[in-house]
Amino acid sequence: MPRAIFKYTKTVLKKVSFNAELFYKELEKAVEKLLPHELTELELWLIEFTQNKPELQSYVLVANDYK
Predict the structure, then answer these.
(1) How confident is the model at residue 65 (pLDDT cuts 50, 70, 90)?
(2) At what angle do helices 36-49 and 2-15 cross, to 10 degrees?
(3) What is the DSSP code string of 11-52?
């Protein structure tokens, strides 16, 4: 089940990445639900995903703050 939540989280974050506020809210929800090792994996994914999205790059730290 936790893997499904992780995959769902990535899907949602991709879909709301057009809006920085929505992205932040969904990221906050995700860090409350994911397991610690999934947060590490999410952080790595976020670094790669936001590489060409400077408006979202500052939110990578959100995932890091919860580890």
Answers:
(1) low
(2) 30
(3) HHHHHTTT-HHHHHHHHHHHHHHS-HHHHHHHHHHHHHHTTT
Cβ neighbours for 46, distance < 8 A, ≥ 6 positions apart: 13, 27, 59, 60, 63
Q: Is the dihedral of CA 3, 53, 61, 25 positive or negative?
A: negative
pLDDT on residue 57 = 85
Please give the tally of structural domains in the chain: 1
Domain that holds residue 25: 2-65
Residue (of 19, 22, 2, 50) closest to 64 by Cα position = 50
Sign of CA dihedral 41, 43, 39, 55: negative
